[in-house]
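One chain is below:
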Amino acid sequence: MDTTTTDAERRVPGQRALARVLYGCAVIAGIVTLVMALHIAADVSSRNLTGTPLSGTLEITQNWSMVLIVMLAMGYAEQIGEHINATILTQYLDPVSRWWSDLIVSGLMFLFVSALTYYSITAAVFAVEVQQVALGAITIPIWPVKIVLAIGFALFALQLLMSIISLLINDRPRKSDV
């Protein structure tokens, strides 16, 4: 038996595979962050040295880089527990009430992100059909990014579902916690 796996990984089917996919997406998001920083630095340098910026920096940054960074890292942030967590009220709850609060909030988040997934998929299908582009200093295709948007929401929804299952299986409070 593999001793490096946790209870949650053994009990929740697909969690390890999803964790690997989310980690890969986070690595890609990190690489895109670095490339975006270099691109912006090159734009600023070009503007200061030659008086002319790199054409299309704004369009590429806002339509590609930022979307890839956020959407590819969102599921991983949920997996490692790094999303914003407002505990101003829940910190005073007993363990059972806090568990119920976590379960309800996670369930509502899952429903909301599932709806966003559905609508982003329909938007991606439309964007692909019309070969959607953004107009600016340069014309840039944005239909591929719409696909990434849908994938990012879908992965986030899957991780939320895994978090809910883990709450139900592994984190259920015991009578001794009350």
Remarks:
- The mean pLDDT is 88.
